[in-house]
Automatic annotation (TrEMBL):
It holds the Pfam family Yippee-Mis18. GO terms for molecular function: metal ion binding. PROSITE patterns: YIPPEE. Transmembrane segments: none annotated. This is Protein yippee-like. The lineage of its organism: Eukaryota, Viridiplantae, Streptophyta, Embryophyta, Tracheophyta. Belongs to the yippee family. It comes from Salix dunnii. Keywords: Metal-binding, Zinc. Residues 55-152 form the Yippee domain.
Amino acid sequence: MIHFNRALEFPLSPSLSYLTGLHFCFTLGSSLVFLGDELVGVILYLSMAEVVGPRLYSCCNCRNHVAHHDDVISKAFQGRHGRAFLFSHAMNVMVGPKEDRQLMTGLHTVADVYCSDCRVVLGWKYERAYEETQKYKEGKFVLEKSKIVKENW
Ligand SMILES: [Zn+2]
């Protein structure tokens, strides 16, 4: 799936290592940049299909991949530190002990969710909801917007 095309421009000299990071891109074309007679750069027109891949969220602290954008159920959740997202799945996380918490939407059994790499608290998992209208949250993850960063997009 091709999401979009991107033109990258960079100077020739120190950037060959940067180029190697792009080996999995499908290059649509390139053009050379001259300053007078001197070749100073190259522009690559890339299909970002491979680079974009699945859109991920990472731990803000260590960049561990913790969730897929496709697994977002809601972006309108209230976390402990502001906005939070509800995800159907999370990965590379550890789930702490269960405890009952009275939340704005009623009593829930929840467990803190930690980054498996750096152990920072990212949010919580709903283990059980006691009210019928809240049952859809069971098994889902809330990650604080301030604790995750977009990766690859
Ligand atoms: Zn982390």
